[in-house]
Amino acid sequence: MVNSQFFSLSTDPMLACPCCADCKLDPYLLEKLDAARSLAGVPFKINSGYRCAAHNESVGGKSNSSHLGGYAVDIAVEGSPQRAEILRGLVMAGFERIGIAKTFIHVDIDPEKLNQFGPVVWLYS
Questions:
Q1: d(CA 41, CA 52)
Q2: What angle do CA 106, 54, 73 make, to 5 degrees?
Q3: Whole-angstrom distance between the N-terminal and C-terminal Cα of the chain?
Q4: 3-state SS of the chain: helix, strand, coil percent to 5?
Q5: Would you say the pTM of this structure is higher than 0.85?
Q6: Considering Cα of 13, then 17, then 18, then 21, what sign does the dihedral take?
Q7: How far is CA 37 from CA 50, 63, 82, 90, in A?
Q8: Which end of the chain is more exposed for a tag (fewer CB within 10 A), N or C?
């Protein structure tokens, strides 16, 4: 894993796949996460980072999940004020693919999806 100001496997074990311990996160993703975390001014707790195919399937992930390529993380949120601060940091850091759920925010830099769909924000039901 690339050096990161705010994230490491010792403090954020969910950056790696829980079933095989691989951590194939894109270095640019970590760079942007560091920037977002700094801008947000609140800690980011990672719920899910890189996933191998077996783990992705076991959690019901889509077959084209950005987690498989190391392009995505899910950040835990504990309420609307924290969600707003995290979102502010993510947008200011230049993230263009953001999924918002009640308990987490998905963010990714998947180049294939960015090329195909452009910037998007979606809600999980």
A1: 31
A2: 15
A3: 32
A4: 35, 15, 50
A5: yes
A6: negative
A7: 19, 29, 12, 8
A8: C
Closest among 44, 114, 124, 52 to 86, alpha carbons compared: 44
Checking if the pLDDT of 84 tops 90, the result is: yes
Q: CA-CA-CA-CA torsion for 121, 71, 61, 123, nearest 10 degrees?
A: -10
Q: What is the β-pairing status of strands 46-48 and 72-76? A: antiparallel
Q: Express as a percent the part of the chain with pLDDT over 90.
A: 92
Task: For residue range 94-121, list pLDDT tens digits in order.
Answer: 999 999 999 999 999 999 999 999 999 9
The one-letter amino acid code at 87 reads L
